[in-house]
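User: Need the bound-state model for adenosine-5'-diphosphate:
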Amino acid sequence: MKIISINAGSSSLKFSLFDMRNESVIASGVFERIGIEGGKYSIKYNGEKLQCEVNLDTHTDAVEILLDKLVELRIIRSLNEIDGVGHRLVHGKDKYKESVVITDEVIHDLDNFREFAPLHNPANILGIEAFRKVLPSVKMVGVFDTAFHQTMNEEAYMYPVPYSWYSDYGVRKYGFHGTSHRYITEVMKGILGKDNFRLISCHIGNGGSITAIKDGKCVDTTMGFTPLSGIMMGTRSGDIDPSIIPYVMEKEGKNASEVVDDLNKKSGLLGMSSYSNDMRDILEECEKQNERCLLAKVKYVRRVVDYIAQYYVLLGGVDAICFTAGVGENSAPFRREVCEKLACLGIKIDLDLNNKRGEVTKISTDDSLISVYVVPTDEELMIARDTLRLIGG
Ligand code: ADP
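Assistant: Bound-state model below.
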């Protein structure tokens, strides 16, 4: 059983090909600059990496090259070996509460929900259409970033704004990174050996969100109507007072979407430090006592601590906290600082264990009142698992 996981962006297409007998990755790679001059792709397989430059006018070009190469490089013998294609889909609004087999209706809905994810949903459709053209008889499954958060109750997902904004325009919290938070939940089910536990899942990458999970279900999450809200991120502000927007519009002669663009792309670590959105650069500068980088790091840690504390209360105590994604998996100093600030909850971590990398690790000490784990996330595998399940493998 071989399944391809696809993450299609407006000018890129990432893929992972899984052998689902042992859930191993047989090949993975990315096609970049689709529809832009200077297209290129790379394919990793069997310890090797193929890199090529080629013009990619459309997503269909990328998919055609991908499938040709899989056969040419003998990664698969023929296209018949591909049993299913799973697509990462960003926004399924409140209609899609779980993954689905992709039909015309799903594509139509993705298009209808376009204004909720103007960059992602149209790109997701391009990815689906490309595979439909090239592999018309292979079943496809859509795995929504928003789906895991559909178990939030009204109290969590409603904003305290005029009710008609919700009923007329769909203004509510949707949440994102759901596939990652669901993967972490599955891993923790295995580790704890039970279904009913209280978990805080911290997906801290360039984008970041924290989710409170009870008995395997999301009860609240930090991202909201869009991925801009919640914790401070690499380039996104996270929560701010909305009145800042018209104030800056007037000061800088910008329109609302330009200011929101600044909040998405020029804020967070990058904005506060005026230096970098990458936590590695920030930590390096902190060693040199760069004041803005020190401030950016303290604020970043504080936002994470604030939300963990909030969710601790919401869940009525916590069994485990997990760190995942680029910063969460790789930055021992970040985890140490967050956990030190949570010491009042009885959290203690082992500094040697905290320095381990690359695998699931319990970093809390035996006498810590809450277990703390590092769990590498694997959204691609989650997509492949859902695909296999829904195509009846
Ligand atoms: P996204 O999927 O949101 O683009 P990732 O989860 O890949 O992001 O995370 C990327 C971020 O991870 C980088 O911007 C960088 O800040 C951070 N990162 C990666 N490795 C390290 C490290 N060793 N120490 C600190 N931060 C790291």
